[in-house]
Design brief:
Elements (H helix, E strand, L loop, with lengths): L3 E2 L1 E4 L15 H14 L3 E5 L5 H13 L4 E7 L2 H11 L5 E8 L2 H8 L3 H18 L3 E6 L6 H14 L3 E3 L9 H14 L7 E5 L7 H10 L4 E4 L13 H10 L1 H4 L1 E2 L7 H12 L20 H9 L7
Parallel strand pairs: 1-10, 2-3, 2-9, 3-4, 4-5, 5-6, 6-7, 7-8, 8-9
Helix pairs in contact: 1-2, 1-11, 2-3, 3-5, 5-6, 7-8
Length: 314
């Protein structure tokens, strides 16, 4: 693999805040956004502006504060959502509207109550509207992994033609197995004629504990943006963990062969800040940032460690 760069899209302030029990004030969000910028993330998804006045205000405040990173606002493929995101992001130095619509049969039938043709049209129109307002448009096919592959390819092609420069293919319900998810990404990369006009992104949930593994397999198969949250926060069992993705890419650069712009010396501070402000503590055995991650109990381990850290600490 060549030394390419992976775009780190952090959704701690949007999907992370949706963790049961997590609650952040506008000041908390600004504090985290500033730290995420210091950490070196490329894109900060600050919230879902149309969902409440507080969400709108929080996105607006983060957009005004952050200068180096891109600030993204989430919007369904609906005019009122997209216009709300645009208004909230006006003060951003770099802005992205992230619009989405579900594409799986189960979501289209039971949640949206729309036909595939209607969904395809809404995706195209939503992306076009975003593109008339900002230069940077991301389109997500919600529940992409459980979508019909032929229909998904059609939607992805249409969204790119309509102006989306990033296409996100989420495992919204954390259903995928790594080898299967890698093949899925490869199939879309090879089956959409204009795919090279966009960055392919993934957003994996952790319901089976496989969000990080699935994201890494996606990178191995051509994805170049990964959507993550600090401490793996997010809906239900959470999202792919920022710190695990970044350190896996760094430690196993020999195997994966890609880089990020993350300043890894800021990871622990970021993790602690998010834990303190959300009130959700980090489990002791959590990879990378847990209190036990560099603690040792076994005498054999300690003996090896004293002789050389590399014996038990990678």
């Amino acid at each position: 693999m060549s030394n390419e760069r992976i775009i780190i899209f952090d959704t701690t302030l949007r999907d992370g805040e949706q963790s049961p029990g997590a609650s952040l004030s506008i000041q908390d969000k600004i504090q985290i956004a500033v730290q995420l910028e210091r950490l070196g993330v490329d894109i900060i998804e600050a919230g879902f502006p149309v969902s409440s006045p507080v969400q709108f205000e929080a996105v607006e405040a983060c957009a005004a504060e952050v200068r180096a990173a891109t600030v993204a606002g989430l919007a369904r493929a609906l005019e009122q959502d997209i216009m709300s995101a645009y208004e909230a992001l006006k003060g951003a130095a770099h802005k992205r509207i992230h619009t989405f619509i579900a594409t799986s049969p189960i979501h289209m039938e039971h949640k949206l109550r729309k036909t595939p043709d209607e969904v395809l049209r809404m995706a195209e129109e939503g992306v076009k509207l975003c593109g008339s307002l900002v230069d940077d448009v991301e389109f997500s096919a919600e529940d992409a992994f459980r979508s019909d592959r032929g229909f998904l390819k059609e939607v992805v092609q249409a969204a790119i033609s309509a102006g989306a420069r990033t296409i996100n293919l989420p495992d919204t319900v954390g259903y995928a197995i790594p080898s299967e998810f890698g093949r899925f990404i490869r199939e879309i990369m090879e089956g959409v004629p204009n795919v090279n006009d966009a960055v392919i992104s993934v957003h994996c949930h952790n319901d089976l504990g496989l969000a990080v593994a699935n994201s890494l397999m996606a990178v191995r198969n051509g994805a170049r943006q990964v959507e993550v949250a600090v401490n793996g926060l997010g809906e239900r069992a959470g999202n792919a963990s920022l710190e695990e993705i970044v350190m896996a890419l760094k430690v196993r650069h020999d195997f994966i062969g890609v880089d990020t712009t993350i300043n890894t010396t800021e990871i622990y501070r970021t993790s602690q800040m998010v834990s303190n402000l959300t009130g959700i503590r980090v489990q002791p055995n959590k990879a990378i940032v847990g209190s036990n991650a560099f603690a040792h109990e076994s005498g054999i381990h300690v003996d090896g460690l004293l002789k050389s850290r590399q014996t038990y600490e990678i």
